[in-house]
From TrEMBL:
It is found in: Cell envelope. InterPro entries: Peripla_BP_I, SBP_2_dom, TAT_signal. GO terms for cellular component: cell envelope. This is Sugar-binding transcriptional regulator, LacI family protein. It comes from uncultured Pleomorphomonas sp. The keyword Signal applies. Keywords: Signal. Residues 33-288 form the Periplasmic binding protein domain. Belongs to the bacterial solute-binding protein 2 family.
Length: 335
């Protein structure tokens, strides 16, 4: 009887403790992730944010995601880091406005014990990231230049529309353009200036280039699609037929894809917003949860092309997709 009574008491204790353990697990607060983006006035950042919100870990309550708009301003982004630190977020995902100005707020977050993960554009001190995922912008610049020069010819006269000076995408895409131009000594750059990733600014800049150079311009390199679409409008406003001057851009936004379909734009280099955003969330959760299994479709573990490698890498590159008239219908249907 003593043994049985002891067993009964132990069993009763387990029975009483089990509901408490279940209740504790059920009531555990979800992990809180802040995403500090460049600007929600740019289509790519909106695509990035929308895709991030669809991550399965948000749907099942594992984590929450707060999108914080940097308004294309380094001071605003710095202040948003202060907000994330004060409110004690578990992790920050960062799309910096400026390649150098983003270093200091990232360092503040690390000193506060908050891990930071990069996505899309990067800071110059990439060693500050716990991990980061983006696409190779030097490669994008090379793809831009090769496509336009192959179409326009090795002795073509071209213009270049740059992004916001100092952002990593602008710096690295221009580096890629220069890499190609170094091997094309007969190509002449008639004009080069920033349109700040803006369609409206690109319209004006392209009109100015055409006013100064007329139909000498045989190709346009735009470091993003917003500017490519703006350049096409500038060409139309000048009285030339869209498509008569080859234009290429980066990002794969819908208006650019439609322009490729119409024949107005030679190529759009699609940047995988879903892969970059959901991949960054996986990297953050991998840091915060022991034994975490990635859930984004971009990873090879889930049928994608990017090797997860147990989340051990510090840097992951999401591949580009060159969209031309040959594959634009398939890409548009997938969107």
């Amino acid at each position: 009887m003593r043994v049985n009574r002891r067993l009964m008491l132990q069993a009763a204790g387990v029975a009483m403790a089990l509901p408490m353990l279940i209740a504790t697990a059920a009531s555990a607060a979800p992990l809180r992730i802040a995403a500090i983006v460049q600007s929600l006035n740019t289509e790519y950042n909106v695509l990035w944010a929308d895709a991030a919100k669809e991550h399965p870990a948000l749907a099942d309550g594992t984590a929450t995601l707060t999108i914080l708009d940097g308004r294309q301003d380094v001071l605003t982004q710095s202040n948003l880091f202060d907000t994330a630190i004060t409110e004690k977020y578990d992790a920050v995902i960062f799309i910096p406005v400026d390649i150098d100005a983003g270093n200091e707020p990232l360092e503040r977050a690390r000193k506060a014990g908050i891990p930071v993960f990069g996505s899309n554009t990067v800071v110059s001190k990439t060693e500050l990231y716990d991990a980061y995922i983006n696409s190779n912008d030097v490669e994008a610049g090379e793809m831009l230049a090769k496509a336009v020069i192959d179409k326009a010819g090795d002795d073509a006269k071209i213009v270049i529309l740059e992004g916001m000076i100092g952002q990593s995408a602008q710096v690295q895409r221009f580096q890629g353009i220069q890499n190609v131009l170094a091997g094309k000594p007969n190509v002449t750059v008639l004009g080069q200036n920033t349109a700040n990733w803006s369609r409206a600014e690109a319209i004006t800049l392209m009109e100015n280039f055409l006013t100064a150079n007329g139909d000498q311009i045989k190709g346009v390199l735009a470091e993003n699609d917003e500017m490519a679409v703006g350049a096409i409008e500038g060409i139309r406003n000048y009285g030339l037929a869209p498509g008569s001057v080859p234009v290429a851009g980066v990002d794969g936004i819908k208006d650019a894809l439609e322009a490729v379909k119409r024949g107005d734009q030679l190529m759009s280099i699609l940047q995988d917003a879903k892969g970059q955003s959901q991949g960054a969330i996986d990297l953050a959760l991998n840091k915060l949860i022991d034994g975490y299994k990635p859930r984004a479709a971009v990873w090879d573990a889930n049928g994608g092309s990017l090797a997860w490698n147990e989340g051990k890498e510090q840097h992951y590159y999401v591949p580009w997709l060159a969209v031309t008239s040959a594959n634009v219908d398939d890409v548009l249907s997938a969107h």
